[in-house]
Design goal:
- The chain is mainly α.
- The protein has helices spanning about 5-30, 35-45, 50-65, 70-75, 80-105, 110-120, 125-130, 135-150, 155, 165-180, 185-205, 210-225, 230-235, 250-270, 275-290, 295-315, 320-350, 355-370, 385-400, 410-450, 470-475, and strands spanning about 245, 375, 455-460, 490.
- About 70% of the residues lie in helices and about 5% in strands.
- A two-stranded antiparallel ribbon has the order 1-2. A two-stranded parallel ribbon has the order 3-4.
- The N and C termini lie far apart (about 70 Å).
């Protein structure tokens, strides 16, 4: 018979998951359709069977990109609001639950902390991940699949033997294959991670793991299918919508890296105060708890503190002159590099347990970001996987500090209040936008019914929380009488559309 406390914890976790799903679903219902999601709305309305969906995805694989599962999910969600919001809420909840499982923060308090971390993205990353359906379906599901894979091999991350079995191997094979069919840098990272895990386990345990072999095989097959798409020949040759430095050889790669480094550094670390402030606090707590300290420990602590201060100053300073702005950015990147190296050394030296798992997750983040140095254009959404990996590392460090031994009212109060505040803030941002979207939809339907050649809609005042919010060309693909463009759409500041 299981202890009463265990049953209570399980009940609390189940209730927390239920409440999180309800909150996430309600929030997703408020997200307006933006950017090229209008294209997917039009495409989704034309798809009436699985065969039609597969035919469209195959055509895209042959011409546009190899993101088979990303396209399946985003096309399926087009013109199906209930399905779209259910999928978004479920994938986000899965990401939160798997973060909780991987880090060991498995109680309701840990779930709330993981939910806060998953939602407290930098604004520019948030608007390209959650409200934008295309961004969501290409970046959140593969991150969740990767976390599921790591949860299945977690003993190997901790230097222990894996409990091998055909079901585990089959699950790892399927997860490895599926997570590769979304975005390219995630695919390359998963392939590298699976190979490192297999070799690491062989050296650590003197055994070959069937489960890890299955994971590597699944990743290799998925990557092969993704990159077999003819579209990547155009990218490699510098043609098409995306370009890479491959066509210019080593010089081309270095040139692309220099151009992309500021943007990658910004969304990898510089604009992520939740991550660097959390890690600074965690590492300094580790230092304070050490019973015996060496002279180098204090130096590391000072470097971490100064690096964090440099990151904060780099975020706060916004000089007007271009030359000064570049100097501030270069100084912030240097401070971030010092901070990151100092934190890496601190984790290696100070962590009392699970150091291999934490370092694997921590060092994985720059590996996932690395391919982005060589392709353009890129955006904040591309660094989402790196953010999730560092978040998982932070959660694992927190678990080693045994927060569950503290009073429940204290350790539960912070995440409960924080999550409530985050949800209320999200409502204050997206509820007015949802109401305005209803007004815009009514105006569009009235214009269509009356035969008007054009319509002026109130523009979104979103304060940076929506990406590509007002896109007339893409909306006109969906709202038309006989062919796209029959109804001309323009935007005006809210309240001025009737004057136009």
């Amino acid at each position: 018979m299981k202890p009463l406390s265990h049953n209570t914890n399980q009940a609390g976790r189940a209730l927390c998951l239920l409440l999180l799903f309800a909150g996430l679903f309600a929030l997703c219902r408020l997200f307006p359709i933006v950017g090229d999601d209008w294209f997917r709305e039009a495409l989704g309305a034309s798809l009436h069977s699985p065969a039609g969906l597969l035919k469209e995805v195959a055509a895209r694989w042959a011409t546009v990109n190899g993101r088979i599962l990303g396209n399946v999910l985003s096309y399926s969600a087009g013109s199906r609001p209930l399905l779209r919001e259910l999928m978004r809420a479920l994938f986000t909840l899965a990401l939160i639950a798997l973060l909780s499982r991987l880090t060991g923060l498995t109680g309701w308090r840990g779930l709330l902390l993981c939910a806060m971390g998953a939602l407290a993205l930098p604004q520019a990353m948030f608007c390209q991940i959650y409200p934008w359906a295309a961004g969501f379906f290409n970046y959140v599901p593969p991150a969740a699949a990767l976390l599921a894979s790591l949860c299945l091999v977690r003993p190997a991350l901790d230097g222990e033997l894996l409990d091998e079995g055909p079901l585990r191997s089959a699950g790892l094979l399927l997860l490895g294959f599926c997570q590769q069919l979304f975005v390219e840098n995630n695919t390359l990272y998963a392939l590298c991670a699976a190979l490192v895990l297999l070799v690491w386990y062989r050296l650590e345990q003197r055994l070959w793991s069937p489960g890890l072999l299955a994971l590597l095989l699944g990743c290799a097959l998925g990557a092969a299918l993704l990159f077999a798409s003819p579209s990547y020949r155009l990218i490699g040759g510098g043609e098409g919508a995306y370009q890479s430095g491959l066509g210019g050889g080593l010089a081309g790669l270095l040139s692309a890296a220099l151009v992309n480094l500021p943007q990658v550094a910004r969304w990898f670390l510089l604009s992520c105060p939740v991550l660097y402030s959390s890690f600074t606090a965690l590492t300094l707590v580790l230092l304070a708890r050490r019973r015996t300290r060496r002279p180098g420990d204090r130096v590391l602590g000072v470097l971490i503190g100064l690096g964090c201060l440099g990151l904060i100053l780099g975020q706060l300073l916004s000089p007007g002159e271009v030359s000064v702005r570049r100097l501030v950015l270069a100084a912030a990147i240097a401070a971030g590099a010092v901070w990151w190296l100092a934190v890496t050394a601190a984790l290696w030296l100070w962590l009392p347990g699970r150091v291999s798992r934490v370092l694997f997750l921590w060092l994985s983040a720059p590996v996932a970001a690395g391919p982005l140095l060589f392709v353009s254009p890129i955006g904040p959404r591309c660094l989402f996987l790196s953010y999730v990996l560092m978040l998982a590392a932070a959660g694992t460090v927190l678990h080693t500090l045994e927060p569950e031994r503290r009073p429940a009212w204290l350790t539960g109060l912070v995440p409960a209040v924080g999550m409530a505040g985050l949800f209320c803030f999200s409502l204050s941002v997206f509820l007015p936008l949802h109401r305005l979207e209803a007004e815009r939809t009514a105006a569009l339907e009235e214009a269509l019914a009356s035969g008007a050649p054009s319509v002026v809609l109130p523009a979104y005042r979103h304060g940076g929380w929506l990406w590509d919010a007002d896109s007339a060309a893409k909306m006109e693909q969906y709202y038309y009488r006989e062919r796209p463009g029959d109804l001309a759409i323009t935007f005006a500041p809210a309240g001025e559309e009737e004057l136009s």
